[in-house]
Amino acid sequence: MPRGDAAQVGKEAVLRPAKWRCRGYSVGKGAWLGCDSSPPSPGGGIGARLCQESSEGAGPEPVLRRPEERLDTWAPAGPEEPQTGAAAAAEPGPMLVVEVKAGQPLVWGAEVAQTLRERLGVGGRPVGSLARGPRQNARLGLPLLLLPEEARLLAEIGAARLVTAPRTDTRQQAQAVAAYHQELESGFREQRALAEEARRRRLEDLAQHIAEGRARKQRAPREVEQGEEGGPQPPFPETAMLVQLPTACPRPTWARPLDWHQPSPDWPYAGDPRHELRYRVYKDLWERGYFLTSGGKFGGDFLVYPGDPLRFHAHFVAQCCTPGDPLPLPDLVSAGRLGTNVRKTLLLCSPLPDGSVAYTSLQWAGLP
Question: Which Gene3D superfamilies match (predicted)?
Fold first, then answer.
């Protein structure tokens, strides 16, 4: 039976826990992330800090900075024993930085995205255009868009800190737009001058050839065409102007922490019953060692993978259900048949009052 398979309909699904993903990862001199017996060699890089620090190594609270392409995370140095599981997430110090804007958690650093995927089992979804292919959407890059459940999990276990940038002042935004249009006009004038200069040089090079042709044909003088030998120059249209496509968005250099316990314009999920339901299911499956992504394209809440989605196919389509709520039979049948057609098992997930989650699998089977 494949790893993570569940029982048939009518029986409680048995989800087998996977081995903890966390491994040693260098975050700078004297600070390391790990669940192994020995720390990795010191060096550059970044990573989530999941190990509990000793009291002697604690340092001052750092000043939060806006995430750049290469994030430098703060972590106090000092000897420590490696931890795993919940003990590894006990350290509340600053870790990776996740920027949240209008309810959208974003990761801008390439190394941060790599750390999340390889060390923490959080993949996210790339939503940014590539610098060498900005006008296509077949392949996307940074930033990485996280699910709200992924961002909350990282903040809750202490692997990341959620921050939000100050909102742009409308007056400053108007000034930025005016400066942009002024820059466009300046570029247009410069390109027009260069085009006129190039045309003048071209006419000078062709002047002797034109005169020889006229003398050879011995024809009557004709009117000088516009643009020849000192005539008026044709206008340089704005449609011929070269426009620079920005590949980076300037962002403020500082940000403030975001309290995900309280609802706000940047985090509207606090107190939402649907979010709480989804988060309990997501956290329980993540703690069992599964890799989860959005399951909207298959009619569910999550797609459940036994490992990295780049290496495995999803085994389950998870749907979150509140215990006691009625589940219409047509919806149940359609979800089960859809899951079977895409070779996945429908997994009904219901959080219980005692903190656990009940799983029931459903597969469409042919009648004898």
Answer: 3.40.1350.10
Question: Which has more confidence, 226 or 302?
Answer: 302
Q: Do the Cβ atoms of 335 and 365 come closer than 8 Å?
A: no
Cα separation of 51 and 36, whole Å?
11
Q: State yes or no: is 305 an active-site residue.
A: yes
**Integer Cα distance of 253 and 239 in angstroms:** 36
CATH code of the domain made up of 272-361: 3.40.1350.10
Spell out the domain ranges in the chain. 272-361
Q: What token pair was written down for 10?
A: 């009518």
Inter-axis angle of helices 148-156 and 273-287, nearest 10:
60
Q: Cβ contacts of residue 9 below 8 Å, gap of 6+? A: 336, 360, 361, 362, 363
User: Of residues 25, 269, 305, 359, which has the active-site annotation?
Assistant: 305
Direct distance between the N- and C-terminal alpha carbons of the chain, in angstroms, rounded to an integer: 23
> Which tokens go with 28?
């700078």
Tokens of 290: 């599964």
Amino acid at 84: T
Residue reference for tokens 């909350």? 152
Instruction: Specify the amino acid at residue 177.
Output: V
DSSP 12: B
Mean pLDDT of 316-333: 92
Q: Where is average pLDDT lowest: 53-62, 115-124, 205-214, 271-280?
A: 53-62
| Separation of alpha carbons 47 and 77, rounded Å | 14
**Is 313 an annotated catalytic residue?**
yes
From the candidates 25, 290, 344, 359, give the one annotated as an active-site residue: 344
Cis peptide before 326 (omega within 30 of 0): no
Q: Of residues 11, 29, 261, 313, which has the active-site annotation? A: 313
pLDDT of residue 230 exceeding 70: no
